[in-house]
């Protein structure tokens, strides 16, 4: 067992990380620094302070990271139209590198030599936390209690809590049967009935969105203003990044937008089913493609599309803090210099419908695209030569007897 | 001007290709063979026979290609989850190589030395027709009247028709202001008000789908059975490929599924706005990803995702009949050997919601994925080593003073 | 410690694996089956039999795998012009999956529940052996003594050998200071003075090739005949795959061909310097590109080039027995259908010079390529349209004020 | 025929472009501005001035572009280890965009509305010149005489010259039978006996290098110093980019380095055989990989390798002045921040042998890489977990009955 003096714990204030806090103190006989972040998960973070104090913690960090999260992590990711395995908008993945970064910053500030987190040994999050931590502070010790202790069932955890006087809140409402994670970008659900891939998800699982069935019968129009690939205003009102996303979450949620039920491939090797609500992100993905469709060069757009799966995998697997992600980001960011303009959307019962896009930097040229006479803007005869030379290699091959069918 | 003896014309029976037919006869003083295909565009093809005969055509081909179209073109394309520029399902693109192939087969049967088509000199379709034709018969002559003649406005075309006694049908209903193309996979709209990217598409433009607003208030569940990556049954009823697609079009259309309004990048260099209705295809894309999610290996899936944009571009730009498309297809098809099983969907007002997927060849292992105790199926301690070695290169770099932030 | 009944050991007969044999017997109290392969490493394999017998081994496998190695592993790899990190021809990497396969086959035949090997915990080979083993027999136990025992220095190993009566051969010649690996494709050197990347490799390290300085002053010409991408004859004499490679090794070695000194990135995360002699492989790589240059379609060739780094990484990191490598292989093999013909080479003091290539399936068309008048085979005017349309997107952008400089 | 007032001609002073000069004056009745560049082709550029004056040209540009060429074109390209189709170092391709840029700059300075060049309608160079010109000045007219006139044989060209009093220099030495192009990066040969792919190139064709057979018997050692991926000093002597390349050309040429004989795929569709001498470039490619091998992160290096074929194709096909090339360049340049250090090479009779590389920013860690005891720098036990989790997906598949063989 590593010799640890002081450990920074990613602390939610909930039961699991409270048990971890106690367990760290007892097992490592070390000082614990708690770090609680407001990433827009929709729960109060201040209660964590009293709980930590009650367990004797002296250095308590409670940070509102919402703006940083959206500005430096969510927005850059959406510049690439990032989707993992064709569906997943990476809501959990993109929050982890920010937490890793803060854990290390706090470790440096407090002189801690270790960090700890509540992620299990089967999931992606442990990888994301730890790769980030090692990349930013290579000598740091990492304590992952779920990989070390023997409290592997809920009963044992409860027993431990009871035995050590850790308060177990018993709300009137039933404990959710799902393992959940939330931040400004999404809320996720795993476990429970979802562990059978054929069983339909339950309607009362969803927390952020109404069902399309319950959404308003009247569509809502929305205009999103882009600057360098990021949304800076909604319906003409300039907003900070976090406000943009919160607003889109609220509106999207009202219209039943952004539910997803998938089976994904975890980095540690197994398939896993997850349900996600990403109302704002779902809107942003569609809208960003729309503004790019008139402002990006074709080959730049295609190159981005070809690199996107790789970029998405890097984020999913925890390599945000890696030189290859940074290298890709430089290219992605550079591509956004002209991605300015406005996209008009219509939201209706789960649908995000693009109804218009405009830009001072639009590359759309109606005069050339038109089916009407264009006054010589485009010489149709050029197409013959274009086709002939593009076909040449295939004609030579066919002439020499190669067959395709 | 090329010396032409006999030309096979892709003939719809409509005004434009009727004018072309006449123009070919007059201009090239050659025999014309007409070829009219039923690709599921929803219009009668037989009327083309009488029209062609009336213009003196002796060799008339009218083919029902619906099954071949879906089985050999649409289904293979969907095995790759193919989407062009993140949105477009390639409904027009995928029909062109089949037409090109038939044009050449008929040219070979009838001893024709040329082919002709009604695509303009500004679009992608001329490229798709001609690349296919050249690849399959390298010495063929291609006559593209829109690139050659001076009938470049609708008025001139009408004048020509009138002057040459080509009947202009004047329905009660107003001529559509859109340039349209339809086949079993989709119907497309271009031109008219769509030439302003900011103007919303008009509700009465759409022909195949009701709007989500008008779709039924009751969702419909659907079970799709896959064999080697293709749908072979709907709700347990085995069907031919064309029947599968026609059925999904009907159901999808009833539920307002599959409308799309995008600006795309044409191969000939300009941006162009198109609206598309692809009800069945929209369902198939979502469902195919779902069945793959439990039956495909992770790295195979990711490799497919990385190659998809390239494959989509090849189809969009007309390289179906190319050795590189065939090479990719071999890999794609090979990946589908285990893509068998059933996907359950819920359709509701424009939404395609996956609610379950199962397969005898599922790679989902609930025992390993579970958050509950798994009886040793997975050793959580392995994760520590996994992370440590994946982090090693970044730790070494950080130790040597490299910084990421 | 795992409970093991019978283990198949990859046994060279040398000191290290002899110690492992003994250590397995003592530590696991299990039966050991030895497997010794002739992969063309140039050492006798039969002596391993007596040594194994002397240690009480009852089931002894000694296999000549040279033909299988070249036919099913080396040749398929060279079809892709495979090079890792721009330089390394993967000589060690490509042999491991064959050994893994045989270990598992023998385990199945002998009812063994475990395999063992002599690769260290720092290298790539452990990964290659074990990924292959797990992929082919998922429940197999793997014993990697170098990761388990405490005999981590040469002294301890020698002590252990002496203590347990394992004969230590002391040749007259000094023990090589290098860690070496050899098979028909190459011989490799690591360690010793090579651990300083600035120090020049020593001339007397190399074993298979003369130095270019010592190579003959007279060049040698060679004609290689290809069938489906593989060499089937040298100077017109048909040969088996292993004979082809052995012959090229001999000739290449005489001419000082195929030495390499690089720093490579290991899968487990660190950089490592290696020196390699790959005389036959160096010739094959150059020649294969030459035969492909006249027989492969351009876009097929480019697609292969784009996928090669991925394919090379899969082999380097041990994923030969993975579905994604198999999927890529199908595409690569399919591309070789027309890769038939003859390449003429000139070998001289380390140089492999292509001097000619011909094929009945050549796509080279002198009539079209010529700078002389071509009698209309190619219409130069086509180029204007080709260029104009390829430039269109950039012209539109420039017209709208976008700047590139 | 386009209406042209003033045209800037890429003028070498040789026979072909002199004929073009005259032909432009006569055919277009326009003013001609000549532009002659010293790109290190090894011929005097000043004589072009008198010839142009003699034909009445008033605006004559003669530029020494050698430093700009190497600094802004050659060096950036080598940062990516760029090779087209596995062999070609793009010596001709990389010079064209600089000429295109200067043609447009001069057109802007002189108020010319057209440019002209002497490239034929069958080659890549016309594309490279014209794509660059259109991208930088979208409205420019391009006159490509070889695609327009009827002087398609050498005889007709000579006749035209004689008739119009254009001096035809008749050296004592026989006119080369090859079409050649030279600049500081290389000299190329096409045509003549090379049009038969089986015929060996002739020894007396080569102009820049001695044959390996004639190279010195004594090897030469060389130390190259890198700063941000570019060579800044040779054997410790700081030099400008053009001097670096000229020096490496001289030394490499003396040692018989950098000859190449290939069949390549032209952008316009046919295969073409070319011979190239690139002595300095051949040295630079090998050396750059060597300095990157110790200073680049593994995944950054692999990403570069995966993107290189695309980047090479962009340069080969003339898209230097495109947004996608610029986007890739940003990523490539960013990757070179730490590519600093020294590479030691040994040159001998055509061989470029790396014998050492060192860097203050080396990521090579002898302590971790060593086969000796490392004092705990690396925990070998980590490898077990690393392998286990990397194998997990394949083990699950095998457990469920999937087979690989």
Characterise this structure.
The structure is a homotetramer of 405-residue chains. In chain A, a hairpin with a 2-residue loop joins β9 and β10. Among the domains of chain A are: 4-68 and 89-162, HUPs (Rossmann fold); 177-294 and 337-356, Argininosuccinate synthetase, chain A, domain 2 (Alpha-Beta Complex), CATH 3.90.1260. In chain A, strands 3-2-1-4-5 form a five-stranded parallel sheet, with helices on both faces. In chain A, strands 10-9-8-13-14 form a five-stranded antiparallel sheet, covered by helices on one side. A four-stranded antiparallel sheet of chain A has the order 6-7-12-11, with no helix packed on it. Chain A is elongated, with a radius of gyration of 25 Å. The first copy, chain A, has 13 helices and 14 strands. The model of chain A has no long low-confidence stretch (mean pLDDT 95). Chain A has helices spanning 15-28, 47-54, 66-78, 96-110, 125-136, 145-148, 154-163, 241-254, 279-295, 298-316, 323-335, 366-369, 382-399; strands spanning 6-10, 31-38, 60-64, 114-116, 141-143, 179-182, 187-190, 220-227, 230-234, 237-238, 259-265, 271-277, 341-348, 351-358. Helix content of chain A is 40%, strand content 19%. Chain A has 405 residues and is an alpha/beta fold. Chains in contact: A-B, A-C, A-D, B-C, B-D, C-D. Chains A and B meet through α5, β11, β12, α9 and α10 of A and α5, β11, β12, α9 and α10 of B.
């Amino acid at each position: 067992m590593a010799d640890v003096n002081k450990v920074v714990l990613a602390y939610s204030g909930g039961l699991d990380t409270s048990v971890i806090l106690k367990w760290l103190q007892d097992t490592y006989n070390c000082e614990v620094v708690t770090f609680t972040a407001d990433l827009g998960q929709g729960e109060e973070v201040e209660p964590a302070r009293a709980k930590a104090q009650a367990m004797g913690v002296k250095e308590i960090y409670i940070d509102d990271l919402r703006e940083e999260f959206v500005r430096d992590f969510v927005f850059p990711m959406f510049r690439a139209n990032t989707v993992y395995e064709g569906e997943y908008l990476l809501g959990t993945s993109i929050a982890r590198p920010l937490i890793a970064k803060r854990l290390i910053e706090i470790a440096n500030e407090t002189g801690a030599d270790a960090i700890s987190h509540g992620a299990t040994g089967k999931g992606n999050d442990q990888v994301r936390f730890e790769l980030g931590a090692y990349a930013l502070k290579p000598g740091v010790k990492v304590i992952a209690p779920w990989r070390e202790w023997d409290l592997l069932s809920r009963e044992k955890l409860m027993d431990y809590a009871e035995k050590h006087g850790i308060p177990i809140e018993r709300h009137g409402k039933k404990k959710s049967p799902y393992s959940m994670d939330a931040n400004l970008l999404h809320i996720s659900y795993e476990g429970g009935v979802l562990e059978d891939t054929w069983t339909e998800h339950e309607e009362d699982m969803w927390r952020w969105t109404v069902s399309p069935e319950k959404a308003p019968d009247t569509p809502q129009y929305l205009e999103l203003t882009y600057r360098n690939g990021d949304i800076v205003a909604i319906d003409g009102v300039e907003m900070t990044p976090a406000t943009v996303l919160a607003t889109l979450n609220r509106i999207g949620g009202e219209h039943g937008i952004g539910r997803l039920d998938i089976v994904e491939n975890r980095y540690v090797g197994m398939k896993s089913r997850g349900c996600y609500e990403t109302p704002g992100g779902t809107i942003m993905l569609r809208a960003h493609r729309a503004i790019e469709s008139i402002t990006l060069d074709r080959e730049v757009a295609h190159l981005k599309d070809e690199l996107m799966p790789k970029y998405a995998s890097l984020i999913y697997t925890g390599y945000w803090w890696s030189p290859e992600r940074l290298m890709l980001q430089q290219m992605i960011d550079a591509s956004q210099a002209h991605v300015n303009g406005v996209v008009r959307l219509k939201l209706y019962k789960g649908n995000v419908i693009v109804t218009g896009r405009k830009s001072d930097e639009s590359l759309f040229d109606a005069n050339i695209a038109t089916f009407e006479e264009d006054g010589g803007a485009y010489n149709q005869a050029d197409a013959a030569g274009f086709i002939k030379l593009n076909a040449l290699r295939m004609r030579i091959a066919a002439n020499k007897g190669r067959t395709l069918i």
